[in-house]
Write a structure and sequence with these properties.
By secondary structure, the protein is α+β, with helices and mostly antiparallel strands. It has 5 helices and 3 strands. The protein is 65% helix and 13% strand.
Length: 106
């Protein structure tokens, strides 16, 4: 699943945000305070892992999930590029509109 599709889900985005601020956590810890089941959290974690956003590591009998910062940097890079393209397009539109508004009818 592509990066933005994985991050586009509200539950998955919350999981990534929590892991980004709290550090590595288990499924049990991530399930606490959620409006979805532990099984649903596990499914969302797997989607994020498949997109390269998260990885898991074994610690005793638990698996801890953690953010892969480079993948989030990839997302930031592409969002910045898209933002630049929009800024350029809006500037071209502004110049065009202001140019047409400044012309006198013949």
């Amino acid at each position: 699943m592509p990066l933005f599709a994985a991050l586009g889900d509200e539950h998955r985005f919350r999981l990534v945000t929590r892991l980004s601020t709290e550090g590595p956590l288990s499924v049990t810890q991530l399930s606490q305070g959620q409006s979805i089941t532990r099984q649903a959290v596990s499914k969302h974690l797997r989607v994020l892992a498949d997109a390269g956003v998260l990885s898991d590591l074994a610690r005793g009998r638990e698996r801890l999930w953690q953010v892969q910062p480079q993948r989030l940097e990839d997302a930031r890079y592409w969002l910045d590029r898209i933002s630049e393209q929009w800024d350029e397009a809006l500037e071209r539109l502004r110049v065009h509109v202001e140019g047409d508004a400044g012309e006198q009818p013949s």
